[in-house]
Design a protein that fits this description.
The protein is α/β, with parallel strands linked by helices and about 400 residues long. It has 2 domains: about 5-180, Rossmann fold (3-Layer(aba) Sandwich); about 185-395, Rossmann fold. The protein has helices at about 15-30, 40-45, 45-55, 70-75, 90-95, 100-110, 120-125, 130-140, 165-180, 210-220, 250-260, 305-310, 325-335, 375-395, and strands at about 5-10, 30-35, 80-85, 115-120, 145, 150, 155-160, 185-190, 195-200, 200-205, 225-230, 245, 265-270, 275-280, 295-300, 315-320, 340-345, 360-365, 370-375. The strands form 5 sheets. Strands 12-11-8-13-16-17-18-19 form an 8-stranded mixed beta sheet, sandwiched between helices. α1 (about 15-30) packs parallel to α3 and α5 (about 90-95) crosses α8. The two termini are about 25 Å apart. The protein binds cytidine-5'-triphosphate. Cytidine-5'-triphosphate binds near residues 275, 300, 319 and 321. Cytidine-5'-triphosphate binds next to α12 and β16.
């Protein structure tokens, strides 16, 4: 953790005293530690404890050193924000985006990854509201360090006890490592649908929104990669920090990809490219009376296969959207397009489109297979990057 900036947020639960031991371990591991305490946390432990351990001032209020705008400075400087312990109230505030004290402002303002270690009474932990808020935070990419089962302050035995110090330390270390594991990589991602015009008002396209590709781009940036995102028509905003090229047609996407492929070390094709385009694009709106059947089609280039045929050390990952015989079809694509790996999702009944949860299986080689499970597209993006890096390292070892 040498020199990495860890922000420890301590909230008002009895387990707050354990955060002091964790703070000491973080400092010993080389972290530069900033501590933010809520008002209720200070009812359990004094700020002086954390100031002595971190050898830095402890932050307790939005209204201290206002000229420095402390929440924005802390939010920007931190490599990871770890909330230990996190009370039910804090978790609810984060999930809803409330910002009524220094810590909740920092959490809302930061782009650093969040680690959340809940600790509370069993009934509060199991309450549907708490479960839903934790699920919301997890879907947004937070790492939830599940509490253990043990002796609680109420002198009961149950779930809700703050996770062990070693587990917390490992979670923070793991997240910090992930923030750097794509440094030096140049990632090329295609995303979204393509749009093939028949006339000025009609086009051929599909239900893709670009969500999965945008989440892969966001995650790659967070892990330190340089990212080129070639994005078809979508109303979604690409992540700030990516070099985004907006395209409409498959041929435009193909040209943009070819131009950027030379510099890329990893390419991921998530775009739902229209395989066909109207043979003629009419300059004026086609009238019912004009022709019997105005729609004659011709093939579009296969962008991914083009990358596969020309790849020179590029690590190439495709996506396969299938509605039947998923893995057999996807393995055929893996071979045909000369890919290093392919992520398969089941798109029957419109599954897999848009912002909802998805499920992916990654396939490689003759029989390599890893089930990435179900989750939000943001969670799956993180798991897919973990799997891609593991494969890439195994290949180059
Ligand atoms: N792809 C591409 N260019 C195309 C078609 C597909 O780059 N013209 C990429 C997609 O981005 C995806 C992968 O190829 O990564 C698989 O796309 P898919 O449409 O599922 O498969 P196809 O190759 O089109 O095969 P089929 O139509 O037989 O399912």
């Amino acid at each position: 953790m040498n020199g990495r900036r860890v922000l420890l947020g301590v909230t008002g639960g009895i387990a707050a005293y354990k955060a002091a031991a964790l703070a000491s371990r973080l400092v010993q591991a080389g972290a530069i530690l900033d501590v933010v305490m809520t008002r209720d946390a200070r009812r359990f432990v004094g700020a002086a404890t954390f100031a002595a351990l971190s050898r830095r001032p402890v932050h307790t209020s939005l209204w201290e050193r206002t000229a420095e705008i402390p929440h924005i400075a802390l939010a920007r400087e931190s490599d990871v924000v770890a909330i230990v312990p996190a009370t039910a109230n804090t978790i609810a505030k984060f999930a809803l985006g409330l910002a009524d004290d220094l810590l909740s402002n920092v959490v809302l303002a930061t782009r650093a990854p969040l680690v959340i270690a809940p600790a509370m009474n069993t009934a509060m932990l199991e309450h549907a509201a708490t479960r839903a808020h934790l699920e919301t935070l997890r879907a947004r990419g937070a790492t939830i360090v599940e509490p253990g089962i043990g002796f609680l302050a109420e002198r009961e035995h149950g779930a809700g006890r703050l996770a062990d110090e070693d587990v917390l330390l490992a979670a923070i270390e793991g997240v910090l490592q992930r923030t750097r594991d794509l440094v030096g990589e140049r990632v090329l991602i295609t995303a979204g649908p393509t749009r093939e015009a028949l006339d000025p008002v009609r086009f051929l396209s599909n239900a893709a929104t670009g969500t999965q590709g945008i989440e892969l781009a966001r995650e790659a940036l967070a892990r330190g990669a340089a990212v080129d995102l070639v994005l078809g028509p979508t109303s979604l905003e690409p992540p700030a920090g990516a070099n985004t090229v907006r395209v409409a047609t498959a041929r435009e996407m193909d040209a943009a990809v070819r131009e950027r492929a030379r510099d890329a070390t990893i390419a991921i094709a998530t775009a739902a490219v229209a395989d066909w385009r109207p043979a003629t694009t009419h300059a004026h709106k086609v009238k019912k009376s004009d022709e019997a059947a105005p729609l004659e089609l011709e093939r579009n280039p296969d962008i991914l296969a083009g990358l596969g045929a020309a790849k020179d050390g590029l690590f190439l990952v495709g996506f396969a959207a299938e509605t039947e015989a998923f893995e057999v079809n996807a393995r055929a694509k893996l071979r045909r397009k000369q890919l290093d790996a392919i992520a398969v999702n089941d798109v029957g009944d419109q599954r897999g489109f848009g912002a909802g949860p998805n499920a992916l299986v990654l396939l490689w080689g003759a029989d390599g297979r890893k089930d990435l499970g179900r989750g939000s597209k943001r969670e799956l993006a993180a798991r897919l990057w973990d799997a891609i890096l593991e494969l890439k390292r195994a290949g180059s070892a």
